[in-house]
Amino acid sequence: MLTKRIIPCLDIKDGRTVKGTNFVNLRDAGDPVALAAIYAEQGADELVFLDITATVDERKTLIELVRNVAHTINIPFTVGGGISSVADVSALLNAGADKISINSSAVRNPDLVNELALEFGSQCVVVAIDTRYVNGEHIVHTHGGRKPTELRTIAWAKEVEERGAGELLLTSMDTDGTKAGFALELTAQISGSANIPVIASGGAGSMEHFVDVFTTGKADAGLAASIFHFKEIDIPVLKSYLREKGIEMRI
């Protein structure tokens, strides 16, 4: 059985780690390089670094910060925010990223998923899907969750897999930062039909929520931010708890 992964997420704004609720009301959560080092030491399986205002500000991801984080850690490292070309990805991989995450640029130009998979391999391409439940349907949002699109979440997940994405990062904007639990039904629907790993994000507030997302939600990885940043849950304690519940973890 494949081990499940625990992934802390560093949402970056103006060079600092921030965390909010439903993508707004951001508060400072510390220095990203220092946090990355702590998580690697604690046994996080991977790290995700999202420059959350890069697309809105129409600028590139903070390369120097990526380089500093990469020098500090020894675990796989995914970077997203403001990526829109092969050249962008090349620069980030050269700075030390292992994988890249695209969202708004994939929606704007779906062929980018094919291009990146062809150029760098599917294992390098994570497509992030920010989704909100609107008028009875799950709808994809872009620009850090600010802009609704015409895309239906489940159909879009299938399309990007067919185009060559190696992994999906599914964030429920409805549960994000609420600590009320992951969006289990949607996660299960997407995980159940996908042939690539699904990282569930948005809503983790307790260790039980991770049990739920790995069992009911069928996710391959659970991503969280504030519960780790503000030391509400320690990664080693979480992993031990999950193993006790029969969930395969890398300790």
Automatic annotation (TrEMBL):
NCBIfam families, per database record: hisF
HAMAP family on file: HisF (MF_01013)
Protein name: Imidazole glycerol phosphate synthase subunit HisF
Pathway(s) this gene product operates in, as recorded in its UniProt entry: Amino-acid biosynthesis; L-histidine biosynthesis; L-histidine from 5-phospho-alpha-D-ribose 1-diphosphate: step 5/9
Similarity comment text for this entry: Belongs to the HisA/HisF family.
Keywords: Amino-acid biosynthesis, Cytoplasm, Histidine biosynthesis, Lyase
Top EC class of this enzyme: lyase
Catalytic residues (positions): D11, D130
Subunit structure: Heterodimer of HisH and HisF.
Catalytic activity: 5-[(5-phospho-1-deoxy-D-ribulos-1-ylimino)methylamino]-1-(5-phospho-beta-D-ribosyl)imidazole-4-carboxamide + L-glutamine = D-erythro-1-(imidazol-4-yl)glycerol 3-phosphate + 5-amino-1-(5-phospho-beta-D-ribosyl)imidazole-4-carboxamide + L-glutamate + H(+)
Organism of derivation: Spirosoma validum
Cell location: Cytoplasm
Any one GO molecular-function label of the UniProt entry: imidazoleglycerol-phosphate synthase activity
CC per GO annotation: cytoplasm
Transmembrane segments: none
EC number: 4.3.2.10
Biological role stated in the UniProt entry: IGPS catalyzes the conversion of PRFAR and glutamine to IGP, AICAR and glutamate. The HisF subunit catalyzes the cyclization activity that produces IGP and AICAR from PRFAR using the ammonia provided by the HisH subunit.
Any one of the GO BP annotations: L-histidine biosynthetic process
